[in-house]
Specification:
By secondary structure, the protein is of the alpha/beta class. It has 11 helices and 16 strands. Strand 14, helix 10 and strand 15 form a beta-alpha-beta unit.
Length: 296
């Protein structure tokens, strides 16, 4: 950890799970701050805006400013801003991304949640708003047929309408080993209907790493990516060619690691986030977590 100045921290599965904050979280974050480490909370969870995450962390017991938090909700708005976007967004998702789009001055058009379906007759007579220049999809527990139909019209009718998704996560692990389907499945449904592949502005996509490096001056050789997902958190670290650490408190288990190819493995596998605050003797090189045949 001596050579690491910045930690890119996932939240779900690393610092908490659902509403349960892990016991190691606050002591570890405070200790890392004492050691002079810069902490960037980079999450694919788009359910909250930066301001909402500041309030959540305050309730947990940690004071942050919004520039330390990089949620997927913010990244979608930042992507549009970086493109000099002009126009309206047809938006599907929850409050976090809605707030970030509005804070960036991007007008949105959306279906109300009580409008769940649409008849063939109504769809045939639907008139798209000509000012809509992008469809933005975030996680939506009210995702339905009507929203899918209208988004499909915008995406099929004009190749100039951008298709943006906050992340392509398959889902997340909840208490009692229950799996919550994620935004990726919703995006796949729209891709099937529209024939359009979205730009993923979250972890797992190509936008986030250059954005982090430019906005925060992050140097890959001085950073470590910490997260519980191989396809997003660890993939981001491998893209940056920096060190990575995977705590076994989230969606990835030891058994899954044993079945994972070497080129997708993290640098370190750790029991929990607290290891990084000084209990380095608990950390294990990823190769030690692999099956013998994978080490060859």
């Amino acid at each position: 950890m001596e050579t690491i100045s910045t930690l890119i921290l996932d939240q779900d599965g690393v610092l908490w799970r659902d509403r349960f904050v892990f016991p190691s979280t606050l002591p570890s974050l405070n200790r890392l701050r004492e050691l002079g480490k810069r902490l960037l909370f980079v999450t694919n969870n788009a359910s909250k805006s930066r301001k909402q995450y500041v309030e959540k962390w305050k309730k947990v017991g940690l004071e942050l400013n919004k520039d330390e938090i990089v949620p997927a909700s913010y990244l979608a708005a930042a992507y549009l801003e970086s493109k000099g976007f002009k126009g309206k967004v047809f938006y599907i998702g929850d409050e976090g991304t809605r707030q970030e789009l509005m804070e960036h001055g991007i007008p949105i058009v959306e279906c109300t949640n009580h409008q769940m379906t649409i008849s063939n007759e109504e769809l045939a007579s639907f008139q798209p708003d000509p000012e809509v220049k992008a469809v933005v999809l975030a996680h939506d527990t009210n995702f339905n047929y009507r929203k899918m139909c209208i988004a499909t019209q915008y995406l099929r009718n004009s190749p100039d309408v951008e298709f943006i998704v906050t992340n392509m996560d398959a889902g997340d692990l909840l208490a009692n080993n229950r799996f919550m389907p994620g935004t990726g499945g919703m995006a796949d449904a729209l891709t099937t209907a529209s024939g359009r592949v979205p730009v993923n502005t979250g972890k797992g996509g190509n936008f986030i790493l250059p954005f982090l490096m430019q906005k925060f001056g992050v140097e890959p050789k001085e950073m470590m990516c910490v997260g519980d997902r191989l396809d997003t958190d660890i993939a981001l670290g491998r893209m940056a060619k920096c060190k990575t650490a995977l705590p076994l408190t989230g969606v990835t288990s030891r058994d899954q690691l044993k079945q994972t190819p070497p080129d997708m493995q993290p640098t370190y596998v750790i029991d929990n986030f607290g290891v990084l605050a000084g209990l380095n003797c608990w950390a294990r090189k990823a190769e030690e977590e692999m099956a013998p045949e994978q080490q060859e």
